[in-house]
Amino acid sequence: MFPVGIDVSKNTLDLCMLYDGIKGRIKTRNIQNNRHSVENILRWLRLQHCGPEDVHVVMEATGVYHERLATELHDAGFRVSLAGNDSNLLIVFYVQIMPDDFVMQLHRF
């Protein structure tokens, strides 16, 4: 399963697919956010030899701009996850994986 992150804005969708997790290789694509977005995403994924069953899409819940895209991707057979816009969760995650000495230095300030 390939993770695909989508940064959703009013006019564009920025896609990033991790296709080699060991080496950290990614492929990116910028697509216009319009009624043809899902068709364009499917076309791009076919070029990467991926179908909806091979991909897990993650996008941030950004006001109303993500709603149509998330629904259409789900209806097309994609696994779709919406990430909350609370960046504190990311901070907690990164603090948990930091070395203790580094965390202690952060708390000194």
Automatic annotation (TrEMBL):
Transmembrane segments: none annotated. InterPro entries: Transp_IS110-like_N, Transpos_IS110. It comes from the Bacteria. Residues 4-80 form the Transposase IS110-like N-terminal domain. One of its GO terms (molecular function) is transposase activity. GO terms for biological process: DNA transposition. This is Transposase, IS110 family.
